[in-house]
Amino acid sequence: MSSFALRNYGPRVFVSYSFRDKDLAERISAALAESGFQVHREDEFSLAGQQLSAAIPQRIGDAEVLIQLLTANSNASEWVAREFAYAVARRDQKHDLIILPIVFDKEQLPEPVRDWWFFDLSGMELSDVALAKIKEICLSSVYLLPLDEEAPWRFREEQAAALLAGLQKIDRRVIVDSNGLLLRWNQETIDHYSKVEGQYRDQFIEQERRQLARLTRRLKVQDEIVRRLALEIMRIVPNYTNAERLMETALRPLQIFAAIVIGDAVVEAAAVAPPAPHPLRGEHIDKLSAANTANHSSGFCNPGFYRWALGAPGNDDDIVEMGMDASGFQGIKVLFPEGCSGAWPMYIPGRRYRSIRGRNCSPALFLTTCCRKLQSMRPIT
Asked: Residue 262 has what DSSP assignment?
């Protein structure tokens, strides 16, 4: 995995263990953290001055996965048993916590754990194969939505379909660009130009570092927007298509979101990317050059970008002014080509959308709102 895999924003994992097994807990925690997981475990001093009965449940309550290391030491620990009981109670209430007991000693295994599926490593070393399996199980606590390396302005189709199919059954967090392409490209730009002498190099590098921070924050917002968008799509689309075409129809607005919102970030990254063979200056150069030919500009106020993102025809005579400001451009309205409406089932031609609750909307929020307009699709006859 790259250093930006999961954007260092992966599953929130709480490691429950006996302090006598500190070395084992550190090894598992380090392996998960290196792969982008958010790992929390206590040590002998981290809870000093706190009421234990309140502190531990709070930490488990924030977790998406509980890993419990069951050894001869922890099997005899009353506190480890209490953590397991609390995790089971929380799962029974909310059904969203993955409990992963990892058993290294089955001789004195507590009875409650025997009734639970556990990862049996009794009498074995913690191998790389075992660590890979632990990561795989933990990753099932979130929905990964990586970008397609062959067309990074799109989500990978398989994972996008899994998100749409699964989210209604189990509502879990979404991680957009879980393969970390956008952040990695930004860092590669910083690394490349740090070695290039130039009058404005330091200012440029500082600018790109700020962009990296902005992009990190922006992706976190998009995680939640995509989750809500997917829920709304699956609430509405079944009313307007048959079962055979359900997923095909549902994927369309999700990929349109990617083309517009992720596509904008890809175009920005390409503008400052290192020379070929960097993919943004190599294999993707034709598609991204077409975006510039479309007179792309940031802020989502240029209709040429929408035509590029949607691959739709049009001309400058079919512009519709939306009733909202473009992101970062106060007083400048979002402009959308009416000719693209056939490629965008969420959009009703000629309709002017007002700002949500009287406020200016970001383009991502705008798309989420427009998802409610999926009713514009004709019901099947």
From this structure: I
Give the separation between CA 11 and CA 35, rounded to whole angstroms: 10
At position 237, the amino acid (one-letter code) is V
- Tell me which CATH code domain 5-139 carries: 3.40.50.10140
Q: What is the Cα–Cα distance from 354 to 356, expressed in whole angstroms? A: 6
Query: Which residue stretches of 237-294 are H helix?
Result: 246-257, 263-271, 285-293
Domain ranges of the chain: 5-139, 143-376
Q: Do 338 and 350 meet the contact criterion of CB atoms below 8 Å apart? A: yes
Kindly report the length of the chain: 381
Give the pLDDT confidence of 50-78 residue by residue, as tens digits.
Answer: 666 677 777 788 899 999 999 999 999 88
In contact, 367 and 260? CB cutoff 8 Å: yes
Q: Give the amino acid at 52.
A: L
Q: What is the pLDDT of residues 184-216, one digit of tens each?
A: 999 999 999 999 998 999 999 999 999 999 999
Amino acid at 55: A
State the Cα–Cα distance between residues 263 and 119, nearest whole angstrom.
41
